[in-house]
Input
Amino acid sequence: MAKKSKKSPAQGGTPATVALTSAGVPYTLHAYDHDPAHPSYGEEAAEAMGVSPDRVFKTLVADVDGALTVAVVPVAGSLDLKALASAVGGKRAALADPALAERTTGYVRGGISPLGQRKRLPTVLDASASAHATICVSAGRRGLEVELSPEDLAKLTQAVVAPIGRA
Output
């Protein structure tokens, strides 16, 4: 079962939680024991927290016309690459090389957060997030999720909100 807590930067938070705390944004931290054998990081998080998979969002890094772009979509679905490209005024999108995504964001795959990245990338949040009072995204490492309002996430990441997810 997930544990709920709050961390301050002084308690050794991740770059994501440090960014949230610095911005004064309210959030809840959910920690759980990550199982490396689980086939889906996002589904594992939803199960561990007892949260519907349509409220848990995964962070994907894509290459849109040569520029890295962050897509935040529900773990219950997939990313529509054409819709992502369109949302940022591009023509073509493909998932980025995982090693490049890790180097650029400063996070490991399965723990990439849309918050507190090493390099700020254009971000698109799936429009379905607006249907929820709060959503969960990675807090910067496997086994750690942060719950916050989609409006706060969009504001902090300067995200475009667009329908980029597929059920």
The first helix runs from residue 15 to 23.
